[in-house]
Design a protein that fits this description.
The structure holds 2 protein chains of 2 kinds. Chain A is built from 5 helices and 2 strands; from the N terminus they run αββαααα. Chain A is mostly helical. In chain A, 40% of the residues are buried. In chain B, α4 crosses α5. Chain B is mostly helical. The longest helix of chain B is centred in the first third of the chain and has 34 residues. A two-stranded antiparallel ribbon of chain B has the order 1-2. The relative contact order of chain B is 0.18. Classes of the chains: A mainly alpha, B mainly alpha. At the A-B interface, α1, β2, α2, α3 and α4 of A face α8, α9, α19, α20 and α21 of B.
């Protein structure tokens, strides 16, 4: 019976179970009763325990539906895409307040753009320059957001 | 007479230059992102939320709503021409819309969807104007136990109805409710789940969570995967869009049935436009004289679901504006936007701020007319937009997300939180969780807890209060019935599957 449960259900249940257990453990640090009324611990504790219960329900669902519905071969993280997209976003985050909006956008687009193999570096560069110019115009000049194009 | 005076008030608000421009901007953006595959309305509404901080609440909500129903119109275009649904609700339009394109009837399919969408939208607006004020008057007598019960029902419905895996959706709702707790507890001043990080004291920002879960996660999932479509060969002329007399005859009843299904399901909390499109399609197929035509390019197969998802997109505002309980995730974001603007959604909204409710309702009417104008003569333009390569599009999406998130508090910490939620959203997709119910939980979390605590304060801690009041007991019984129904139906499905071997 247990062998019927698809791997994705095991993982999903483990994740939700862990989050629920952690949430419940954290909730026990807050008071259950304050001035004789219900305290800040009750609601999060209840939710966390329900989440642990739902983790079990995900396993039961796995038994019911079996591996036919879930295609376990489908769990293939797109590592390259994750690396490029998050790398680009991190570059923006680290650069925007240090060197300004334009270099932050150029770096972010050049890094994130590598997630798509078919786009050439030149196309990426043109996209980056176009985006940097239009964002500077819209956000800095027009909407007056505190995002200076260059900081030195 | 009353309704005429209210409508006049609505027109005076919605026809002001600023409201008209925000409405036009909203529906055009909605149409655009609906057409473009790989970016959904949830991500767009989230991304554009910071822009509305600078607009007055009426205009802000008019624009956000425009994006929502505009995307419903646009979603079907990509579905019909490329077999790529721009939105979840438009997935049904692929079933018969794409076969129509293959048969050289793309023009007729696009014309039929536009008219059906417009018709469905109109029916939805009528239901909204007629029923929301009545429901709001009724809801004035609701106490916190009734609100608690209604929210429980809405959240359960969102988790259990329509999704492929009820347990996973329920987990998402619970996770959303837990995320909603993060921050300072208003009753006691306790910091919960903030881990000593001062920026988390105000709680998780809805915009950051939405853009991460939907924008960034969608880009991670699609980058390098979506290619531009081969739509260049399609030439859609006015002449090719005209339906035959037989098409008209086949479309009238499905449009009416679809609108009825959509406006009914749209009103129920927790059920969204996508579900109503699927249900309307199933009904048409079942009631057809020759169901084998479906999937081969039957015009009924696109008219009914389109009418349904557009009417549902309008009636989803009934529970949102009259009770303060959102019908689906995207309306939940709009509810969040109202709260950010200092407007308290609930039964008092319509009586206290009639200009907001009626202005919004009339703006729906104007927005639908604008969409009709945007759709039919400009269809060639939308088809060309479909040809923009995703490789150029997604870096732009990411930059807008970064700037949008950064501008909320001028803080790079928020960009970091958005990245984390992007990763979380991607992991969830990988393990077949659908993150939309999480948003509903996030928005309703604080309200649910407040109403629960208020009820328990009234009863001095006795939970029996939820069952001794007839209305809240009935609603909770409905919620229990829903759980039972789902359990029994999944058991029956399993038995049938084992019987079939």
């Amino acid at each position: 019976m247990i062998r019927r449960i698809p791997a994705s259900n095991w993982w999903a249940a483990a994740m939700m179970g862990a989050v629920g257990a952690f949430g419940a453990w954290q909730a026990t640090h807050y008071p259950f009763e304050l001035d004789r009324i219900i305290g800040p611990a009750v609601f999060p504790l209840g939710l966390s325990l329900l989440l642990v219960g739902t983790a079990l329900a995900i396993l039961v669902e796995g038994v019911v539906t079996g591996p036919t519905l879930d295609d376990d071969a489908g769990i293939r993280p797109r590592w390259w895409s994750i690396l490029c997209i998050c790398g680009g976003l991190l570059a923006f985050m680290l650069l925007v307040e240090r060197v300004g909006l334009v270099p932050a956008i150029l770096a972010a687009v050049m890094i994130a753009g590598r997630a798509d193999h078919e786009t050439t570096i030149l196309t990426n560069l043109i996209t980056a320059i176009g985006l940097a110019a239009s964002c500077t115009f819209v956000f800095y000049w027009f909407l007056r957001l505190p995002l200076p194009p260059f900081i030195w | 007479m009353d309704i005429l005076a209210n409508l006049a008030l609505g027109f005076s608000v919605a026809l002001s230059l600023s409201a008209l421009s925000y409405c036009a901007l909203g529906v055009t953006l909605g149409m655009l992102i609906g057409v473009l595959p790989g970016i959904g309305p949830l991500a767009t509404v989230g991304m554009l939320l910071p822009l509305t901080y600078y607009a007055p609440p009426n205009e802000a909500i008019i624009m956000l709503a425009g994006i929502y129903y505009g995307s419903m119109y646009g979603g079907s275009t990509a579905a019909i021409l490329l077999n790529l649904p721009g939105t979840a609700g438009a997935a049904v339009a692929c079933l018969d819309g794409y076969p129509m394109t293959q048969k050289g009837r793309a023009g007729v399919a696009l014309f039929a969807t536009t008219i059906a969408s417009f018709f469905g939208g109109m029916v939805g607006i009528f239901i909204l104007a007629a029923f929301a004020p009545v429901l709001a008057r009724l809801a004035l007598s609701f106490g916190s136990p009734e609100y608690f019960a209604l929210m429980v029902l809405g959240l359960l419905a969102a988790a259990l109805v329509g999704g492929a895996s009820p347990a996973r959706s329920l987990a998402m709702v619970l996770l959303g409710l837990l995320f909603g707790i993060v921050g300072t507890d208003v009753n006691s001043g306790y910091q919960r789940y903030t881990f000593g990080i001062p920026q988390l004291g105000d709680g998780l920002n809805l915009v950051i969570v939405t853009t991460g879960l939907f924008g960034i996660a969608e880009v991670i999932n699609n980058a390098g995967r979506i290619r531009k479509g081969s739509v260049k060969a399609l030439d859609i002329s006015w002449r090719s869009m005209l339906p035959t007399r037989d098409d008209w005859r086949r479309s009238v009843l499905p449009a009416i049935r679809g609108s009825a299904v959509g406006s009914t399901l749209g009103v129920l909390p927790g059920t969204g436009a996508a579900l109503s499109a699927f249900v309307a399609y199933a009904i048409e197929r079942r009631s057809a004289r020759n169901p084998e035509r479906f999937g081969q390019g039957a015009i009924e197969g696109i008219v009914a679901p389109e009418a349904a998802n557009n009417s549902a997109a309008q009636t989803a505002f009934v529970p949102t504006l009259s009770l303060g309980i959102p019908g689906d995730a995207i309306v939940a974001i709009m509810l969040g936007a109202l709260i950010l603007h200092g407007v308290t959604p609930g039964p008092r909204l319509i009586s206290d701020q009639p200009e907001l409710f009626w202005g919004l309702t009339v703006s729906f009417l104007i927005g639908n007319l604008l969409l009709l104008i945007l759709n039919l003569p400009l269809i060639g333009l939308w088809v060309r937009i479909l040809a923009i390569p995703y490789g150029i599009l997604y870096p732009a999406i990411l930059i807008f997300i970064c700037v949008g998130v950064y501008s909320i508090n001028n803080s790079t910490f928020d960009v970091g939180v958005a990245i984390l939620f992007g990763l979380l959203g991607y992991v969830m997709r990988l393990f077949r969780f659908s993150p939309a119910p999480l948003l509903l939980g996030l928005v309703l979390g604080p309200l649910l807890e407040q109403n629960m605590r208020r009820s328990l304060m009234l009863s001095r801690g006795d939970p029996w209060i939820f069952f001794e009041r007839p209305l809240s007991a009935t609603i909770l019984a409905l919620a229990a019935g829903l759980i039972l129904f789902m359990l029994v139906s999944s058991f029956l499905r399993r038995r049938r599957a084992t019987a079939e071997g």
